[in-house]
């Protein structure tokens, strides 16, 4: 997906994902990017719980790395948080913060895609 489409999608508060290499061949791994809408009640509450005092006019993204045993990947099973072998989570501020976080994971912005284009489990 081109970079402009990625940023536009994220600015519409739609999540995006990237397939990632896993630490073990029996696992699958993903990076989930969740844009936080600071103008929504849920977004405001999430940011407040994360210790963010001022968030007007800023963009925030919840970045989650997930690893899941492939045995949980089936059409009739929906994994819960406790099924994941690895979960890391970080809150980043703005496009630069997200680009930096993606770089640290070895992911380019253009590598992000919609969850239905991947087998992202959540």
Descriptive report:
This protein is of the alpha+beta class and 122 residues long. The protein has one domain. Helices cover 24% and strands 29% of the residues. Strands 1-2-3-4 form a four-stranded antiparallel β-sheet. Strand 1 and strand 2 form a beta hairpin. It is globular, with a radius of gyration of 15 Å. The protein starts with a helix and ends in an 18-residue tail after the last helix.
Write a compact overview of the structure shown.
By secondary structure, the protein is of the alpha+beta class.
Number of helices: 3
Mean of all residue-level pLDDT scores: 91
- Helix coverage percent: 10-25%
Strand content: 25-35%
Shape: globular
The biggest sheet amounts to: 4 strands, antiparallel
Order the strands across the largest sheet as they lie in space.
1-2-3-4
Structural class, by secondary structure, is: alpha+beta
Whole-number tally of structural domains: 1
Q: Element order, helices and strands?
A: HEEHEEH
- Rg on CA atoms, Å: 15 Å
Q: How far do the termini sit from each other?
A: 21 Å
Any chance you could write out the topology, listing elements then pairs?
Layout: H1 3-11, E1 16-20, E2 27-36, H2 41-49, E3 60-69, E4 84-93, H3 94-104
Antiparallel strand pairs: 1-2, 2-3, 3-4
Looking at this protein, list some descriptive labels:
29% strand, 122 residues, alpha+beta, 3 helices, single chain, 4-stranded antiparallel sheet
